[in-house]
Amino acid sequence: NAGVMQNPRHLVRRRGQEARLRCSPMKGHSHVYWYRQLPEEGLKFMVYLQKENIIDESGMPKERFSAEFPKEGPSILRIQQVVRGDSAAYFCASSSTGGLMDEQYFGPGTRLTVT
Amino acid sequence: DAKTTQPTSMDCAEGRAANLPCNHSTISGNEYVYWYRQIHSQGPQYIIHGLKNNETNEMASLIITEDRKSSTLILPHATLRDTAVYYCIAVTQGGSEKLVFGKGTKLTVNP
Questions:
Q1: Nearest by CB to A45, which of B42, B92, B100?
Q2: DSSP 8-state class, residue A61
Q3: N vs C: which end of chain A shows fewer Cβ within 10 Å?
Q4: Chain A residues with CB-CB distance to B101 below 8 A
Q5: Percent composition of chain A: helix, strand, coil (DSSP 3-state, to 5)
């Protein structure tokens, strides 16, 4: 059973470009979470999605960031007009039910570098 | 969710037990204690969780004090591959499923 997959693993963008990060949850999982880890800091929650629905986006910056989890295909975290401060590791996690007793399985992360 | 406090760093000799403490003095009755770890820039990995009773699985044991104000994660026979940052997180039953990571404890297992 493949784990959570993220691609690309490394992404370099120039300031002003768009970054699209993909996350394929574990088979059978319909709940996806995105976290961001700035250099030398802990992970910060960004958004929680179920298939086709955003459940909690309290950690998403108000501008330039969006996330989706379509009925078919991976979850996408999209960052428009990237700035240097967006450079970070972005981790996706998935769970099967989203309930409290269901641990989250994390992917290997996408390391975004904005030049 | 209750705030948790952990030491910044700890060292442990290979083969010995690693005991990682966590204080959560403001924890409420419906908050669980979860432990995750992050090995050098990899994605975090779930270890164990508990509410009141002590818990054990193939990775670790979790000891929760009777007043639930603190807990200890025990890795019974630490290996070099257990070197990681360990996060203790309080999660509210019925609340948001998001995990709030603090700074954690950097555990270094020495040969």
A1: B100
A2: -
A3: N
A4: 35, 42-44
A5: 5, 50, 50
Q: What would the pLDDT profile of A50-99 be if each residue is shown by its tens digit? A: 988 999 999 999 999 999 999 999 999 999 999 999 999 999 999 887 66
pLDDT, tens digit (0-9, with 9 covering 90-100), for A10-32:
999 999 999 999 999 999 898 99
Would strands A43-50 and A31-37 be described as parallel, antiparallel, or unpaired?
antiparallel
What is the DSSP-derived secondary structure letter of residue A86? Answer: G
Show the low-confidence residues of chain B (pLDDT under 70).
1, 94-96
For chains A and B, CB pairs below 8 A equal: 60
Q: Comparing C-alpha atoms, which of B109, B91, B100, B111 is closest to residue B39?
A: B109
Residue of chain B nearest A98, judged by CA positions: B97
Neighbours of A81 (CB within 10 A): 13
AA identity, residue B74: I
What distance in Å separates residue B31's CA from the closest CA in chain A?
Answer: 10
- 3 state SS of B80: helix
User: Do B46 and A105 lie within an 8 Å CB cutoff?
Assistant: yes
Chain B from 54 to 83: CB within 8 A of any A CB: none
Amino acid residing at A78: R
Partners of A47 in beta bridges: A34
Both tokens assigned to A99: 């309930």
